Amino acid sequence: MAYEMIVLTNMLIAILFAQSLNLITGFCGQVSLGHAAFLGIGAYTSAMLTKSGLPLVATFIPAMVIAGTIGLFVGAASLRVRHDFLAITTMGVSFLFTGIIRKQDMLGGEMGIAGIPSPEGGRVGLLLMALCLTILFIIVMIYIKRSWMGYVFDSIAEDEDTASIIGIDVRRFKLFAFILGTAGAGLAGALYAHQVRFIGPDSFGFVESVTVLSMVIVGGIGSIWGVTIAAALLSVMPQFFQVIDDYKLLVYGMLLFLAMRFLPEGLGGLTKTFRKDRGQT
Amino acid sequence: MLAIEILIQGLIQGSIYALIALGLTLVYGLLRILHVAHASLFTLGGYLGVLITNATGSLFLALLLAMIIVGFVGMASYRILYYPILSRPPLIALIASIGIFIASEEVFRIIFGPFSISYISPPLQNQIDVFSGIMLSEARIMVVLLAFILLLGMNWLARQTRLGIATRASVVDPDMAMSSGVNVETIRYSIFFIGSAFAAAAGVMVSLLNNLVEPTMGAVPSYKALAIIVLGGLGSVRGALIASLMLGVIESFGTIYFGNLLDRDSLAFAFLILVLMIRPKGIFTKG
Amino acid sequence: MSARTETQPILEVKDITVTFGGLKAVDRASLSLYDNELLGFIGPNGAGKTTLMRAIIGMITPVSGHIILAGQDISRCRIVERINLGMALAQQIIKPLKDMTLLDNVALAAGGDKLLSPVKAILNRSRQQQQEVANSLLREVGLAHSVHKYPTELPLGYLKRLEVARALARQPKVLLLDEPLAGLSKTEAEGMANLIMSLPRKGRSVILIEHNLAQVRRICKTLYVQHNGCHLAFGETEDVLANRDVQLAYLGKSE
Ligand SMILES: Nc1ncnc2c1ncn2[C@@H]1O[C@H](COP(=O)(O)OP(=O)(O)O)[C@@H](O)[C@H]1O
Ligand SMILES: [Mg+2]
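Above: the input entities. Below: the structure tokens describing the complete assembly.
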């Protein structure tokens, strides 16, 4: 039972993390290759706080606030660049984050932080918290999608220039997406730190950023259900591949390539095609 | 260390960056794709360099063969990797490319083993006094010379041959290639050949400098070369070359002065972000 | 015409110069637009008309000059600020949002402060009011039959009209129309010209770039002519069209 619980918690954290990026990349159209940095910021914040005696629940808000605040600054900087320049800038953020953490003795430097306390309520407690927070975040996402914010995001994701000609304050909306998305990643990070109980700079590197981006893309950019399913599948996949653990990255890399080659609109795209087909007949 | 020595180290590193970045920026100029898997070809070049030298005893032969073989692998990578998804948004190609790169590191590990491989008798290790007491190994001098010769050669090709002229035109404006009468696919294949061959040369050079190759040797260059071509203004060859040398020198000085704050690789990205904040389209583009 | 001398213009363009590399696309352009006016803006292809409109709305930054809207210098304002001060542009090269129906395209532009404030945007869900506005605007431009269609399903002429409807949804004080009749059939152009003629009123004026001189002549009282980026002529429509320089530069080529 314990094993299933760990897998399930992992899955929920992955879904929350992927949805937080879906907000930025899917809804608002801003590519980020450095999202794992914000998972890391939340994880480090929460871990430091629980190690100093705070209960895990009390660290959610600080983790979100700090991740969101740094997200605001990164977002503000990212406003200056677009498209491929944005992709590379956010990739730089990813490398910069791990580079800075490595040199901070206060944060455990290269060695990371070990001995993160077990959350109150143990594994079951963590699973329940992850479940509630993930569902809550998805509800917020659905709400956003249906509000004027979702409407505005759609236009920005499709064509920023046209959005601004219509009178949309593109910058503000992008910043809002960055704050919300990075705060969400911070929240996922708080859960993650207490799931693995050991974190280090390498837990939040570039490959992790690519992994979460691939969840969003395989899920179908902007599709809430597609991304949920993709995140769930991709996060449990390593468990199924236990036997081929040695070739995990090989399989994962090939999967990314094949998904891009044959499923460029992701799982969400599949349902869209299906709906369109039905609509026409 | 003397400032001039630090400068020279930086220029040597910069020459290697230049060899890698050239192919990347050409591919970007032609296809608007961030070709991360380029670094796999760099690693392959390094392995071929060590293995062929160890087998035949000739570094020169190894370099030549590595460049040719990797050049063809590069052409194949265009056909298999990018050609089918050219019409998709650039992000798709980027993720596909990252996927191939991640997978390739594993392939190297599976084929050549997880540990590093070295030269049996490392060539070009004699120290030469180049400049009033500054000693450099022959290998280091060779890196700079080779980069210089290859880039000059490419410049000649680009200016004197019909293919080169058509390529330059189509990097500026992809539609112009059509009117020049040279087949677009021919241009693309030759860019992948040359770019990959240069990456292989860089791989051989790095293997020589470190006297080892390992499956993950492409990791840092792959992302750093992206930073370089972005600094250079994406698609600009001259920009990429200048940015390569600049980054080499900045890293070299930066590690000495800021080494306790940031490691070498984060330093490069800190510089990149700083520059993009001031010039959002790179240093060498207008506007 | 008397308005021209009596009151302060709603829009003043002063000495605007725009360059692309070495090319001076607009060279010290100056013009004034008064409230309740329909100003025709003509000039041969490549005269820099579109470029001037893009400079007025803030899509490109001129190397020199000033834009003054209702007495306020907006030369340094961002596009979104200018638009929200009461300008709108229907572009020559249409930019519909392809993933939305025509109705949603226009209703979005009618979103008002929900387009400026993320907080207001997240707190509001109903689009009904904006859709009503959009419906009536689409009817006005003659697209009542296609409100639920997607832009990719429609011919260019329809999309030009969508562009105009979307600009109108902003309820602009100053409306810039860049060749709205292009791609329309003769009767459609006539209908659209009638609509444009009815637009100017107190609190709303229009600059109309158009190559369809028959319609321009019919609906515009004043004309501004630009040639090779420079001001060429300005005045009452018939006088301007009779001007020798204008005929040489413009009519001489096209007729
Ligand atoms: N973005 C641009 N970059 C470079 N040149 C441009 C650009 N936009 C317009 N031009 C040039 O500026 C001149 C004026 O163009 P434009 O304003 O579109 O003229 P018009 O609308 O009067 O036909 C033309 O020579 C055109 O080629
Ligand atoms: Mg025009």
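Note for the figure: Chain B touches chain C through one residue (CB under 8 Å).
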